[in-house]
Amino acid sequence: MKQRRLVGVVGLCGALLSVACTDRAPSNRLTVAISPYQDIAMLVAAPAQGFDTASGVSLDLRSMPWEEIPSSVASAAGAVDVGFASLAEYLTKQGRMNAGTTDSLLFIYPLYVYRGGGFVSFLPNVPVLDSVRLKDVATVRKFLSMRIGAQRNSIYEMIVDALGARVGDSTAATKIIDTQLNDGLLAAEKGSLDIAAAGLTQLAEAEKRGGRTVLRMDDLGFADITGLLVRRSVLDKKRPQIEGLIRAWFASVNFVMADIEKNSAASLVYLKRNAATQYTLEQYTSALAPEYLPTNIAEATASFITPGGRYDASQIANRMADYLVRTKKVSSRPIAPTYIHIPPK
After folding, report:
1. pLDDT on residue 26
2. Right CATH number for 26-113+224-326 from 3.40.190.10, 3.90.1300.10, 3.40.640.10, 3.60.20.30?
3. For residue range 7-30, what is the model confidence (pLDDT) as tens digits?
4. How far is CA 40 from each of CA 84, 106, 305, 344, rounded to the nearest angstrom?
5. 11 with 62: CB under 8 angstroms?
6. All residues at 6 or more sequence positions from 321 whose CB lies less than 8 Å from its CB, including other chains
7. What is the rounded CA–CA span in Å between residue 175 and residue 177?
8. pLDDT by residue (tens digit) across 180-238?
């Protein structure tokens, strides 16, 4: 999950990126909510390189805090057509977001997997839970006895619950202090939290400030799928443009990953102006390392949508739904998303 406060929240046209955002046919325009993270930032290459035009869509990218994207996409005002979202958050909030409306919010396509989150601490007495110590009941219990900050209804809460299950503590997740990622980092640094949930940005910042990583989600087998969120009516009305967005996304990822040193310039400019962390090229390259980023539709289909794939999104959604029902986070079992099919070209 990526709830990080932004330094500057602005659109991407005009002087921000020195990317030409030409006036194209309004019927072809798609407004996309993004947040300034190392992965999503690759999409700014689409207007810069013409990947959106080649995919039959004119992208209007709107930068905003991650936690505001679902409400912006859901708004009847229609300022945003589609946005990036976490599968875990979508499943957790699905019932509330779609209550009383026929124009449901849909999680329509998985794009990439973030495997780099974890927990940080600035205290020497907090144990590190690596792959070996995760098997030691006493060490895990000591970890869970600390003041842990994490956002409620996030994958980080699921991780704490999973730790509790290892040592027979079914109440572990109920004891966390509801905290956004950036706030948690500051609270841990100042001493009001012992341990704080951290995305890749916060992991890097903690190390810069003298903290350390005490648990990585990958060691527990957790991964967070990010994809696209859209209202049903917008999907029906703008299906061709949404397919164009998905094609432009993969074209952008392929472009950047093919030569990060040469092709990440637009992403770095965007992050410099908007992100809480200022990336050097080396830091940006390192930040992408814990991510699984398919570079084309065929790879994404095989990895996420085909049953038994490397990150079978349906299986992951079902496991998350099991957790939400078991812990009574939801009143009824969330409906697993149905993913749209993108025809090959």
Report:
1. 53
2. 3.40.190.10
3. 333 344 433 343 334 444 457 999
4. 8, 19, 20, 23
5. yes
6. 91, 333, 334, 336
7. 7
8. 999 999 999 999 999 999 987 798 899 999 999 999 987 887 778 999 999 999 999 99
Instruction: Give 129's DSSP letter.
Output: B
With a CB cutoff of 8 Å and minimum separation 6, the contacts of 117 are: 1, 155, 156, 197, 198, 199, 200, 203, 216, 217, 222, 224
| Amino acid of residue 102 | T
Provide the pLDDT confidence category of residue 340 given band limits of 50, 70 and 90: very high
Please give the helix or strand (H or E) that residue 279 lies within, else none.
Answer: none
Q: How confident is the model at residue 3 (pLDDT cuts 50, 70, 90)?
A: very low
Task: Assess whether pLDDT exceeds 70 at residue 70.
Answer: yes
Q: Helices (DSSP H) in 135-217: which residue ranges?
A: 137-144, 155-166, 181-190, 200-208
Residue 269, C-beta contacts closer than 8 angstroms, at least 6 positions apart: 17, 18
* Superfamily designation of domain 118-220: Periplasmic binding protein-like II (3.40.190.10)
